[in-house]
Design a protein that fits this description.
about 260 residues; alpha/beta; Rossmann fold; seven-stranded mixed sheet; three-stranded antiparallel sheet; globular; binds the ligand O=C1O[C@H](COP(=O)(O)O)[C@@H](O)[C@H](O)[C@H]1O
Length: about 260
């Protein structure tokens, strides 16, 4: 299914394994494109099971063929916990992905875990501004916000993306690049998160959803019945392409 108007593509695969295979090729192709065009590839990770979905990148042929030296890695959100804590999105990504591929350590931009939620959000925004100033990170000519090459996102059962939850005032933040939340409905409560203007200024977004947990949210987001109150995931509109990677289970209500 492809929608040319809002650059949305929905791909449904038989199994989660097929999603992982296709997602690895998609990421590797974009890595090659941006490495050639810009000399670097800026990639944003989320937490959750997305990290498991990108496992094929750590295996042949990709582990040997991707230009890992061009990668710059960021997080769309992070929990305010030490980096070695079981709830840390950095730890999840390090254990499942970053420790298995040769991305230079200086190009992995973890959120500062020694600061408060507010301080860590401000600090991360400062890091991003410096990278825009030095040309590592592109800037959107449309919005003026940083333009990441690719965001790899998951979605929660309530339709949340990053740490942007349904009905929360942070959905309306339109000035800050990075902000903080002290009352996340999903634990842990203190987090930092990219804002929608930053998410929507990115070039490409892969939205990866597999398994039974998000069947209803996928249906609300992509089904034929109009959803009166937009889920956070329905506000995601990157500049080039939003591509959904679903397995048959996650898409089961769409096919009814
Ligand atoms: O709390 C979070 O949840 C979302 C979705 O996670 P999942 O386990 O349902 O895949 C995740 O994308 C976000 O980064 C994380 O902090």
């Amino acid at each position: 299914m492809a929608d040319q108007n809002n650059k949305k593509v929905v791909k449904v695969y038989d199994t989660e394994q097929d999603v992982a295979v296709s997602l690895a090729k998609y990421v590797a192709d974009l890595s090659a494109k941006f490495a050639k065009e810009r000399g670097s590839f800026t990639v944003v990770l989320s937490g959750g099971y997305l990290i498991d979905n990108i496992r094929k990148l750590t295996e042949p042929p990709y582990v040997d063929s991707v230009e890992w030296s061009k990668w710059h890695v960021f997080w769309v959100d992070e929990r305010v916990v030490p980096r070695n804590h079981v709830d840390s999105n950095y730890k999840l990504a390090f254990d499942g992905f970053l420790s298995k591929v040769p991305i230079p350590a200086g190009q992995v931009y973890a959120i500062n875990d020694a600061l408060s939620a507010e301080g860590a959000a401000e600090d991360y925004q400062t890091v991003l501004k410096h990278l825009v100033d030095t040309g590592v990170l592109a800037k959107s000519s449309v919005t003026g916000f940083p333009k990441f090459d690719l965001m790899l996102l998951g979605m929660g059962p309530d339709g949340h993306v990053a740490s942007l939850f349904p009905g929360h005032p942070l959905l309306k933040e339109n000035v800050k690049w990075v902000t903080h939340i002290m009352d996340s409905p999903k634990l842990p409560p203190q987090r930092i998160t990219f804002t929608f203007p930053v998410i929507n200024s990115s070039a490409y977004i892969a939205m990866v959803v597999c398994g039974p947990g998000e069947v209803d949210a996928v249906y609300k987001a992509l089904g034929k019945t109009a959803n009166p109150e937009l889920l956070p995931v329905q506000r995601v509109t990157p500049e080039e392409e939003l591509r959904w990677f679903l397995d048959k289970v996650a898409a089961s209500k769409l096919q009814e």
